[in-house]
């Protein structure tokens, strides 16, 4: 889905010293009266187009709900129930709690403005608790018991894949808020963010243009990092990067076909000393590390890279450009 406004500039705006960064910051400064270290500006920059897309999507969903789930959803009252399904506890709470907060903020704004199609939004918030089977149970609860018109939720691809059969069986609608690995398409899921070819491969192109010759693939052990890194491995090969310059390890099937690329850690992993040492040895000379570690572990990985290895790191969205000092 392509969001309106300038939101398509967001990934590029994180690239160091880019013209896009300068133009974006100039535009944000003009449009926001008070900003603290750029954080409020960035928030407003993302919120405005996202809010527009959110309102349009929600209005469309409510308009269609009467026919799609006519026997399940009661639209005759002055309110309509909207499900919020995120991890409010467990490993993924650090990422998903803020999504719950911004949804409630948006619902409040919409309701103060008269609602959607004349109806006030009544949020029904449930906790997936970073437990993938529980996500499916909570999705059933929202659709079958609470009878919500639509659900906003999930973060990890494994949570999305857990609830997908529920939404398809009950003909519900899930708005999925973050980038994903592709290779999936369902009429019951509204994929609102980038696939690999819209985020990861352009970043690799940027790194190659900067003269980076080696890539170490690392991530959390679940669907999105594994699928994305395998796509990146094949993409790097097409760009002429030799296999020996792609680190993290490979796993092959009986025919010799590569079926997994990269090194993976469990959710909540905190000890990255060994992995950082491996990357330092592999990347001698200053090369690139593709980092797909979830937020709860990413901070610890950065700490090991910065403080224990003597490296300087420049953040590139989910990518870290690692250079020896």
Salient structural properties:
325 residues; 5-stranded parallel sheet; 6-stranded mixed sheet; Rossmann fold; disordered N terminus; alpha/beta
Number of strands: 13
CATH topology of the largest domain: Rossmann fold
> Helix coverage percent of residues?
40-55%
Q: What class, by secondary structure content?
A: alpha/beta
Query: Average pLDDT, to the nearest integer?
Result: 74
Give Rg in angstroms. 21 Å
What is the approximate shape? elongated
Helix and strand element order: HHHEHEHEHEEHEHEEEEHEHEE
How many separate structural domains?
A: 2
| N→C terminal distance | 40 Å
Sheet having the most strands = 6 strands, mixed
User: What is the CATH C level class of the largest domain, in words?
Assistant: Alpha Beta
* Count of DSSP-assigned helices: 10
Looking at the overall shape, the CATH architecture of the largest domain is 3-Layer(aba) Sandwich
Strand content: 15-25%
Within CATH, the superfamily of the largest domain carries the name Response regulator
């Amino acid at each position: 889905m392509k969001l309106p406004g300038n939101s398509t500039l967001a990934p590029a705006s994180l690239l160091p010293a880019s013209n896009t960064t300068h133009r974006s910051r100039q535009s944000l400064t003009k449009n926001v009266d008070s900003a603290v270290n750029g954080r409020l500006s960035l928030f407003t920059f993302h919120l405005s187009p996202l809010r527009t897309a959110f309102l349009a999507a929600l209005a469309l969903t409510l308009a269609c709900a009467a026919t799609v789930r006519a026997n399940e959803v009661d639209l005759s009252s002055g309110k309509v129930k909207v499900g919020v399904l995120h991890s409010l506890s467990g490993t993924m709470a650090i990422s998903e709690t803020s999504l719950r907060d911004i949804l409630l903020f948006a619902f409040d704004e919409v309701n103060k403005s008269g609602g959607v199609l004349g109806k006030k939004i009544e949020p029904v918030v449930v906790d997936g608790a970073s437990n993938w089977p529980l996500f499916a149970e909570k999705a059933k609860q929202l659709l079958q018991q609470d009878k919500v018109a639509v659900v906003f939720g999930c973060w990890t691809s494994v949570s999305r894949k857990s609830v997908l059969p529920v939404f398809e069986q009950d003909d519900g609608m899930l708005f999925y808020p973050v980038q994903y690995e592709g290779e999936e398409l369902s009429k019951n899921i509204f994929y609102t963010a980038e696939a690999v070819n819209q985020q990861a491969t352009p970043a690799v192109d940027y790194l190659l243009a900067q003269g980076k010759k080696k890539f170490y693939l690392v991530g959390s052990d679940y669907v999105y990092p594994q699928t994305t890194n395998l796509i990146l491995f094949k993409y790097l090969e097409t760009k002429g990067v030799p296999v020996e310059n792609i680190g993290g390890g490979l796993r092959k099937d009986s025919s010799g076909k590569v079926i997994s690329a990269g090194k993976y850690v469990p959710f909540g992993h905190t000890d990255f000393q060994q992995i950082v040492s491996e990357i330092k040895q592999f990347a001698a000379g200053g090369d690139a590390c593709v980092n797909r570690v979830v937020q709860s572990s990413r901070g610890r990985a950065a700490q090991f890279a910065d403080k224990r290895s003597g490296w300087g790191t420049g953040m590139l969205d989910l990518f870290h450009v690692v250079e020896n000092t």
